[in-house]
Amino acid sequence: MAQSGDYTYTQSGGNATITAYTGAGGVLTIPATLDTYPVITIANSAFNNAAGHKVTGITIPNSVTLIDSYAFYGCTLMAALTISNSVVTIGTYTFAYCSALTSIIVGSGVNSVGVAAWAYCTALVAAHFHGNAPATWSGTDVFSNVHAGFVIYYYTGATGWTNPYKTYTTASESPPSTSTPSFFAFFWS
């Protein structure tokens, strides 16, 4: 175990796994590196401690590929969540009982979602998925006991989504515009 700032981590194969958070809370952007090691995993129950319950928002960096089971379980003050496109796997009960969450953004790389990943997030009204429907979706309780008006939004053109999807209402939305400037050439003769 090593400590870097507010994070306890293990190092293996040149990569870091966050195992605990010891900071004061607030809105956090998980670091992409700890002591030069790329952070690729947030371990089981890493933020499921007294310090983690003070977290009000979280952004997962592009280095992380796995958010393990119970990693943010019961972070009752977390109101905002953005998961980067690099994340492939979200474990079981990972964000369960995060009762202040109202809306989440799930990056395009997520391919596996564990049992009850967002269960009992009672204020959660929207999940915005930026990719195709995950290949592995563990049961119909991924979003159990969320807000009554809950909707899964997905980008128009993404594959695998249906309405309903695993019993949840869905709706398509347009991805953000990435406008490119127009150039006009005038030729005078």
Summarize the model shown.
The chain is mostly beta strands and 189 residues long. The protein has no helices and 16 strands.
Can you characterise this structure?
The protein has strands at 2-4, 7-12, 15-21, 26-29, 33-34, 37-42, 55-59, 66-67, 80-83, 89-90, 103-106, 112-113, 126-129, 136-137, 151-155, 170-173. The strands form two sheets. Strands 1, 2, 3, 5, 6, 8, 10, 12 and 14 form a nine-stranded mixed sheet that branches. A seven-stranded parallel sheet has the order 4-7-9-11-13-15-16, with no helix packed on it. It is built from no helices and 16 strands. By secondary structure, it is mainly beta. The protein has a single domain, classed as Ribonuclease Inhibitor (Leucine-rich repeat, LRR (right-handed beta-alpha superhelix), Alpha-Beta Horseshoe). The radius of gyration is 18 Å and the shape is globular.
Strand content: 25-35%
Parts with pLDDT < 50 across at least 5 consecutive residues = 182-189
The N- and C-terminal alpha carbons lie at a distance of 73 Å
Structural class: mainly beta
**What is the overall pLDDT average?**
92
Can you give the helix content as a percent range?
under 10%
Q: How many domain regions?
A: 1
Overall 3D geometry? globular
Rounded Rg: 18 Å
Query: How many alpha or pi helices?
Result: 0
Total strands: 16
The CATH topology turns out to be: Leucine-rich repeat, LRR (right-handed beta-alpha superhelix)
